[in-house]
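Hi, here's the filled form for the chain we discussed.

Project: internal
Contact: R.S.
Residues: 115
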Amino acid sequence: MNDTGVVIGIDHIPELVDLSFENISKSNKKLIDEGKIVLDVGDGRFGYKKYAPYDVIYVGAGCEQVPEELVNQLKEGGRLVIPVGNPNINQQYIYIIDKDQNGKVSWQATVGVVR
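And the returned structure, exactly as it came back:
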């Protein structure tokens, strides 16, 4: 097993980031101390360039459009999973966006989700 990976968590609500620190610290603070888990307050639509490119980006909050910055931060061979669509009419789909080894990006709408 490769032990060099890093997990980045971003949220725009500081209290949720603080709660994440608390919860992770209860079970395995070493992951934070060693930089294996990085938590930050920010706008996740801009990603986190410091550790890019990424093998996988998972977005839990829906967006009306796929943030191009996230696609740009994908590694060749990487995958982005994100709910996309119009939340006002409860029409969102989980999109799987893959970047192949040549940098070509493909998009696939999978299952519908509701807000």
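Let me know if anything looks off before we file it.
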